[in-house]
Structures are given as structure tokens and as C-alpha cells.
Amino acid sequence: MRWLGLVVLLLSACAQTVPLPEGYRMNRYKAPVPNHVPGGRVLTVAQAKELHEKGSALFIDVIGSGSLLTEGIDGEWLRVRPRHSIPNSLWLPDVGRGALTPAQELYFSKSLKAITGDNKQKSLVFFCLKSCWMSWNAVKRAAHLGYENLYWFSQGSDGWGAGGHLLSEIAAYPRKATQ
Questions:
Q1: Sequence-distant (≥ 6) Cβ neighbours of residue 62 within 8 angstroms
Q2: How far apart are CA 29 and CA 131, in angstroms?
Q3: Pairing of strands 77-79, 69-71
Q4: Helices 133-144 and 102-116, interaxial angle, to 10°?
Q5: Which CATH number fits domain 35-178: 3.40.50.1700, 3.30.420.40, 3.40.250.10, 3.10.560.10?
Q6: Full-model pTM
Q7: pLDDT band for position 71 (50/70/90)?
Q8: Cα distance between residue 133 and residue 29, in whole Å
């Protein structure tokens, strides 16, 4: 029985020692993640649910678009497949990638400014899927933009749903709202 306890201790130590990149995670976004993020606080499913119920934070899904979205007329997104996520979340596709194009950087910064009313004290919860580095990157990027009340929900929409909480279809935040 002692060896079982030792194995559990070693496994938890390994989970906590995921090395942090010097900058952003640049590839293999779906991989083991660290237990902390510079500039943000980590949330459990219960803590995320509590913040969501209080309505005291904006939930921002940063899952990549992949083949889900294409840019349409007048800067709007054309949805190819639905995205099911935490209800009332804002979806800022692809802003959690390691290297953003200038257009993506502008979309991210202008979107945050618009949805917070230019209030850098507003509480923001970033997430995507369980064990996804995109949300880790987004928290770090938002901290560099000067946002101060940042949360990382590393369990993402997967953890939310597995916790028995409702997922609903959300739309990508419009690009033209930031132009």
C-alpha cells in the first residue's frame, strides 16, 4: 500500500512540473499544461461555476477556429460548425495561438477593450478545452496588455461539461466590432 501512495505522489509531482515556455507555447496546444500561469489565477470547475453564477467575470473561449470559421463579408465570421461552450461566453477564435498575426493581435486587444469597456480591472476567465495551451497563452497575453484580474480555467469547456454543467452554442465575437 505504501508504494501506491508513492506512485500517486510521484504522478502529482510530474503533473506540477510541466515546464513553462519563455514566451508563449508555439505548438502542440493540446498537451499537459502547468498548474499556474504568469499573470493569472487558476480556477477549478467549482470556482468557475461560482464566478459564472455571480456574473462577476467575463468568460472568454479562445479555442482555435481550425475549419470552424471563415471570414465572411464585411469582417463577420461565417460559421461552418457550431461551437458548444460555457453559456454566455465570448468566443475569440485563434487568439490563444503562440504567434499571432498583426491582425489577430489587433482583434484580441480591441475585442478585450470593447467587451470590458476599457476597464483593465474587469475579471476575465480564459479557457478552451481541457489541457489546452491556447487559454494559457491568452491569459499571459492579456496580462501583457495590462489586464489585472485574470483567471485561467484550464479544465475548459470539457471540464465544465464533465462537471454536469450545461454547454450551449456560442458565436465568434464579430471582427467588424473591432475594426
A1: 91, 92, 93, 94, 95, 96, 126, 127, 128, 134, 135, 137, 138
A2: 8
A3: antiparallel
A4: 70
A5: 3.40.250.10
A6: 0.86
A7: low
A8: 5
